[in-house]
C-alpha cells in the first residue's frame, strides 16, 4: 500500500493520547479482501484497556466541556481540513482493507469528512429556552448540556463515515468518545485518530480501542461512566447491546439493519429508475444498509424494466478496487459470499428466473457476480432477509396498495425508494411507507444535512442533520427564584 504519508497506517490502538499494544501483546490480522494479502495487525484488546479508555475519557471531559462551542468548533474544523488534505491516503487505506472501488472510497472520505464540518458548525447552534413563568418571583430557564462519556461501535461497510457520523456530534456537544471499530476495517479508524491527534483533539477526548467485540462491547455497556452508547451494525447485535445497556440506563442510538424496497410504478421514467436501482443496489457491492434489497415492478413495465436493468448490470466491472474503472469490488469475506449464494440458490429453487450472474466470480477470493433474478415471490428468503450483497430480486405487483403492503412487510424500516411521476401517487406512497427515509425518483439519499435513521427494527435516533447533535445532549431545567 503506497501511502503519501505512511504514518497514517497505524497498527496500535489509541488510548488517552497514546499509541498502545494490547496488555497481553495479542494481535488480530487484517487482510485485503480482494487479494487475501496480509496488511498488518491490530491489538487484540479487551476489558482492561477499554476500562482505561473510558476512565481517561471521563478525566478529559471537564476540560473539553468547558471549552466554548466556538473553541470546539475550531478543533473539529482543523480535523476536517486534515481529513480532506489526506483524502487520497484515507481512500486507499479503505479500499485496501474493505474492498470498495477507490472512487467510492474517496466519496466516502468526503462524505465522512462532511459530518465533521457540519457538526463544527452545529456546535455553535446548541440553544436553550426561557419559558413564560407561572410565578412572578421565578424565572424558568432551559439549557442543553453534554450527556457525558460516549461509547461507539461501528461496522466494516463504511469504515470512516460511520465513525465521523458519531464522533462529530459527540465532540461538538462537548462529549468525549471511546470507539471500537470493526475488526475487519480498523485502519481507517486509526488513521482518523492520528489526524484527530494532529488537529488538537485533547488526549482522552477521542480514543480507539481495537480487539474483542464481545469484551470491549460488554465493558462499554456495563461501565456506569458511559452515559451513551451509539451503535451502527446489524439488528441482531443491536438487540444484544440494548439488553446489555439496560442495567445502567444508557441513552442509545441504534443504526441497524435495512431491507429497502425499491418500487417502480408504471408511470415511472424507466431509464431513471434503472439508473437509480443500479446506484442503490450495487453501491459497495450491495453491502450498504440503505441498498435496494427488494425491487418491486408494476406488471405493465415489468419485462421492459427487467431487460433495461439487466443490460445495465452487465456493464458493471468487477475487480480489485484500486484498478481503474472497477465499479464493484469483493465482498468483505467468504461468509458474506455464502449468504448471497444461499439467497440465490433459495430463489432459483422456488421458481426464480436467473437473468444474469448468480455465481462466485472467476476472480476468486470473495468476488461475486452482479446478479439479477426475475419472477421472485414472497416465499423466498430474499423477501424478508437483508442480502447485503450484489443480488437484485425482481418482484411483480399490480396495485399501489399491494406495493405499499409488500414494501412494509418486514421488521425493517430504514430506507425505501420508488419511481413515479404522479404527484398524488408520490404523496400517498411516501406517507404509506413505514421507513425512516424515502427516496422518490432517486436511489441515493444520504448526506450530512438530512436526518439519517430508521423505524421499526432498523434502529433508534437520527444521525447527521440539525437533529443529530440532540442525541449527545441532555436538557436541564433551572427554576430561578427569589426575584
Ligand atoms: N443503519 C445504518 O446506518 C447501518 C450502517 C451500516 C451497516 N448497518 C448494518 O450493519 C450490518 C452489517 O455490518 P456488520 O456485519 O459489521 O454488523 P455487525 O453487527 O456484525 O458488527 C457491527 C459492529 O459490532 C461489533 N460487534 C459484533 N458483535 C458484537 C457484540 N456481541 N458486542 C459488541 N460489539 C459487537 C462488530 O465488531 C462491529 O464493530 C448490516 O445489517 C447493515 O444493514 C446499518
Ligand atoms: O451502510 C450504511 C450507510 O449508512 C450507508 S450511507 O453511506 O449512509 O448511504
From TrEMBL:
InterPro entries assigned to the protein according to its UniProt record, in alphabetical order: Ald_DH/histidinol_DH (IPR016161), Ald_DH_C (IPR016163), Ald_DH_CS_CYS (IPR016160), Ald_DH_CS_GLU (IPR029510), Ald_DH_N (IPR016162), Aldehyde_DH_dom (IPR015590), Aldehyde_DH_Superfamily (IPR050740), Succ_semiAld_DH (IPR010102)
Positions annotated as active site in the UniProt record: 255
Keyword terms, alphabetized: Oxidoreductase
Domain (Aldehyde dehydrogenase): residue spans on this chain: 19-478
Family the entry assigns: Belongs to the aldehyde dehydrogenase family.
Protein name, entry field: NADP-dependent succinate-semialdehyde dehydrogenase
Taxonomic placement: Bacteria, Pseudomonadati, Pseudomonadota, Betaproteobacteria, Burkholderiales
GN (gene name): gabD
